[in-house]
Design brief:
alpha/beta, Rossmann fold, six-stranded parallel beta sheet, 13 strands, binds adenosine monophosphate
């Protein structure tokens, strides 16, 4: 099937040709016809499925066909997304897909100035992509009214709930006009999401694509057992492999992400961190450098990584295993997007084995074990294990010192152990527990 069989307009088809999209993805095939007809939609889908184009393309045609001008301080289509990165990404896509029509597209999210937000909406805007908190700030300051919203899109609803946006969403719903088209996307459907969807949607078309475990089919996965203190050296060595072209590294904490970046830098691997403590310009620069390939290693926390849509991520590294197993699937889905294949590595320390079991239970698959690299300990000992002291102003905020129990150690096999080292590490782990 091709895009023109979906009944999209000529300017939209031209924009798709400019993006070199040859065929619609499954969610685009299923969602575009009912959306063009004005139906509500419930989409169970995660990023990487092509869902942005699925909701933006038919919406562009409907907005153009209605041929209205937005009144000052209003928008005609409101897209709510949980994170700044995702909001920017959606707006960027909307601009690209709407390149040959006259529709205005803008974003509004935290970390930008209210004055700039005001300029975005003061003359009225056709497509506004926003995070919920800042959007409601504008409503409260009488800089935005939702009374003219023709199309309302809620993206990544489950993530919104996880981030505590439920009250903001309820309030948004109360501000929307009754007469509207509503599109609701979520990767999962827990009860709270279902309830919200029921409230928002009228006889929706339902589209289910790639359930949460599907990235596990596309992505080649490996797990390496390693002592926590040796993860940094392992990451450095693995990032130096020539096949690693662009890598996204996941760290559980913001502080951890900064530390990983510093130590990579000290060993000659250029990397940036992206997380909630970074300013908006810092986040944008990190993302731009990652996209352009200038700094092809990005170390991210889960929340910041939401919405990072960069094609050509060859590898995902789980420096820490995530606390929530679904997050693992989201993480590895950052590689192998839009039908490409990708590789994901996870580093598992002794105290993360329970998390690994949960992941394997969710995906119903055992993650194949990748042994430690050849001569790992010898090569690791040659790496710098301390980052150079940085100027005072750049020092990460230190948490109060917390005494820790001594780290349990796997006994990795000595130099030259090669492929057996990982297995050896596992065996010794088991021996210790048996004792
Ligand atoms: P999304 O799920 O909207 O985040 O899209 C995932 C990625 O797939 C983005 O990089 C899109 O640019 C890309 N994409 C979306 N639709 C298509 C298509 N029909 N053909 C090729 N790439 C696509």
């Amino acid at each position: 099937m091709s895009f023109d069989q979906l009944g999209l307009s000529e300017p939209v088809l031209r924009a798709l040709a400019a993006k070199s999209y040859a065929t619609p993805t499954p969610i685009q095939r299923q969602a575009i016809p009912p959306l063009r007809a004005g139906r509500d939609l419930l989409g169970i889908a995660q990023t990487g499925t092509g869902k942005t184009a699925a909701f933006v393309l038919p919406s562009i045609d409907r907005l153009v066909a209605a041929n209205k001008r937005p009144a000052p301080f209003t928008c005609r289509m409101l897209v709510l997304a949980p994170t700044r990165e995702l909001a920017s990404q959606i707006a960027e896509s909307a601009k690209a897909y709407g390149k040959f029509v006259k529709l205005s597209v803008g974003t509004v999210f935290g970390g930008t100035s209210i004055a700039a937000n005001r300029r975005t909406v003061e003359r009225g805007i056709d497509i506004l992509v926003a995070t919920p908190g800042r959007m409601l700030d504008l409503v409260d300051q009488r800089l935005l009214s939702l009374k003219d919203v023709e199309i309302f899109v809620l993206d990544e609803a489950d993530q919104m709930l996880d981030l505590g946006f439920i009250h903001a969403l309820r309030r948004t719903i109360s501000l929307l006009p009754k007469q509207r088209q509503t599109l609701f996307f979520s990767a999962t459907m827990p009860a709270a999401i279902k309830e919200l969807a029921d409230k928002l949607l009228t006889q929706p078309e339902q589209v289910v694509v790639t359930p949460v475990a599907s990235a596990t089919e596309r992505v080649e996965q490996h797990i390496t057992f390693v002592n926590q203190p040796e993860k940094q050296a392992l990451l450095t060595l693995m990032l130096q492999q020539p096949e690693v072209e662009r890598a996204l590294v996941f760290s559980r904490t913001k502080h951890g992400a900064d530390k990983v970046v510093k130590l990579l830098g000290a060993n000659g691997v250029a990397a940036n961190a992206i997380h909630g403590n970074k300013s908006q310009p810092q986040r944008e620069r990190a993302l731009a450098e990652f996209k352009s390939g200038k700094t092809p290693v990005l170390v991210a926390t889960d929340i910041a990584a939401r919405g990072i849509d960069v094609s050509g991520v060859s590898h995902v590294f789980n420096f820490d295993l995530p606390e929530v197993p679904e997050q693992y699937v989201h993480r590895i889905g950052r590689t192998g997007r839009a039908d490409a294949t990708g590789v994901a590595y996870a580093f598992c320390s002794e105290d993360e084995r329970g998390l690994l079991r949960q992941i394997e239970k969710l995906t119903r698959k055992k993650v194949p074990v990748q042994p430690l690299p050849e001569r790992f300990l010898e090569r690791a000992s040659q790496l710098v294990s301390r980052a150079p002291a940085s100027p005072q102003s750049e020092q990460p905020q230190r948490r109060p010192h917390q005494p820790r129990p001594p780290a349990k150690r796997f006994s990795a096999r000595p130099a030259g152990a090669g492929a057996g080292a990982g297995a050896g590490a596992q065996r010794s782990g088991r021996r210790r527990r048996a004792r």
